[in-house]
Write a structure and sequence with these properties.
154 residues; alpha+beta; 5 helices
Length: 154
């Protein structure tokens, strides 16, 4: 079946089977930041935004994208680059395989929560797994990134 949706700000169409996952369709569309890491909806690597809300694209059928706005890391390059610099400065980027999903969730959290506490940050990002780090560097980078937002608003 053919579906139409907005992908990173552009209206697109795709021919998909009824059982095609959103993750697979997005990769076919060239969105290689969207990755499958676990196939059990537990790692967060496949996180994209559907109408601005984070979803695990490995658990969403592509047909659900019909008439919705889908945003991947490719559509958030400027913001992602800035957050990525904070991650790199703290040594939190290591292999980088988990970074796209983490960045998508941090950017969504920044839009959703005003001045999140450390507990709220940890809860929001609980579904993002990283096999390289102990998460401390990521937490420091995210804290500094969010702090810079508060300082810019002051």
């Amino acid at each position: 079946m053919e579906i139409q949706f907005t992908l990173n700000g552009k209206m697109v169409s795709a021919e998909v089977a009824a059982d095609t996952r959103l993750l697979d369709m997005l990769r076919e569309k060239g969105c290689y930041s969207v990755k499958c890491g676990c196939e059990t909806s537990n790692c967060g690597l496949c996180t994209v935004w559907m109408d601005g809300v984070p979803v695990l694209s490995c658990s969403v059928l592509a047909v659900r994208a019909e008439e919705h706005e889908i945003t991947t890391l490719e559509g958030l390059q400027e913001e992602a680059r800035e957050l990525g610099a904070y991650l790199a400065a703290e040594g939190a980027d290591q292999c980088g395989f988990c970074s796209p999903g983490l960045i998508m969730n941090v950017l969504a959290m920044e839009r959703e929560l005003e001045n999140p506490t450390q507990e709220e940050v940890e809860e929001y990002l609980a579904g993002n797994l990283c096999r390289c780090t102990g998460y401390m560097a990521q937490k420091r980078a995210i804290e500094k990134y969010l702090k810079r937002t508060k300082e810019a608003q002051a």
